[in-house]
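Protocol step 4 of 6: structure prediction from sequence.
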Amino acid sequence: MSRRANMDLSLSGNYFELFGLPQSFTVDLPRLDDAFRALQSRLHPDRFANTSQADRIRSLQASTYVNAAYATLRDPLNRARHLLELAGVDFSTDCATAMPREFLVEQIQWREAMERAHRGADESALCGLEHRLHQEIAAHQTELSRMLEQARDFEGAANCLRKLGFYDSLRRDLREMIEAVVDTRVV
């Protein structure tokens, strides 16, 4: 097999096909990891160091594509977004602001509770919020999976995914607050 043939793969835009996985929100992560490693061992630019510049460029492009596909399927929110795109759902950021009032009020309440605990350097309260937030995220991910795989309710899934985006932002900010509180105690 020539090196060029070794580089041929479909860059169709369907990341599940690229890795030989079923198109599903639930992904067999060890299988994904194995498929990723196999593709990268075939496509890695180092394998093409002594080939033509065109082959080196194709290798770099293919390797970059595989990395992006892998990162997308490893992350539940990006995986769901990819599934929605494959289903033809327009998941533009313009629609992301149209959230129910109750949900936005809930987000404000989360932020206020986080700020209170952070200002008080209350690690226990922050960790309690983090635990509750993980439960909330898990419940929404379960609902997202149901909407994508059983109900095939792509509009509902898109709305659920938008909510998960808000929760993910809370999760990142909360993690930073916890680390900041812990760091001040270590010093």
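Step 5 (inspection) to follow. The longest helix spans residues 154-186.
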